[in-house]
Design goal:
The protein is an alpha+beta fold. It has 3 helices and 5 strands, in the order H-E-E-E-H-E-E-H. 28% of the residues lie in helices and 18% in strands. It has a 5-stranded antiparallel β-sheet, covered by helices on one side. The chain binds adenosine monophosphate and zinc ion. Adenosine monophosphate binds next to loops.
């Protein structure tokens, strides 16, 4: 995609702090990190989001994500890692080129997760049935 920022980064048309690349996978520092060492891992090829991605593309990405997590914990001294992946603007996706956020965490960094809301009476069963039914058609 000629107008995609992350395609331009993958092709080196735009600079980034690259930490790894091979024929399929590209990993670089997020320009605006949640914590220093926040890495974005993505396929070099343009897929808009997770649903758009062929399943075989997933394995090399997962391997890379696991390696980055090990570096963040064993090499950089972080205590935990969040793996985030946003799909579509409603879910916070700003750059429409599939990417995974590998975010290193410390207990003391002060970030809190979003809060859940309990299901009302019987609502979980209704939702469970809807999802089970829809899954049969996929
Ligand atoms: P998302 O909201 O999941 O699409 O995340 C996009 C991420 O890309 C954000 O965390 C940005 O900080 C990051 N980002 C945007 N432009 C650049 C860039 N030129 N180099 C590195 N990271 C970038
Ligand atoms: Zn792209």
């Amino acid at each position: 995609m000629s107008d995609c920022l992350f395609c331009k980064i993958a092709s080196k048309a735009i600079p980034a702090e690259v930490v790894y690349e091979d024929d399929e996978v590209f990993a670089f520092l997020d320009i605006n990190p949640v914590n220093p060492g926040h890495v974005l891992v993505m396929p070099k090829k343009h897929y808009e989001d997770f649903m758009d991605m062929p399943e075989e593309v997933c394995l090399p990405l997962v391997r890379m994500i696991k390696r980055v997590m090990s570096v963040q914990i064993d090499g950089l001294g972080y205590e935990g890692v969040n793996l985030f992946q946003n799909n579509k603007p409603a879910a916070g996706q700003v750059i429409p080129h599939l990417h995974f956020h590998v975010i290193p965490r410390k207990t003391s960094d002060g970030y809190v997760h979003w809060h859940g809301h309990e299901y009302g009476n019987g609502e979980a069963a209704i939702m469970g049935a809807k999802i089970r039914e829809s899954l049969k058609n996929l």
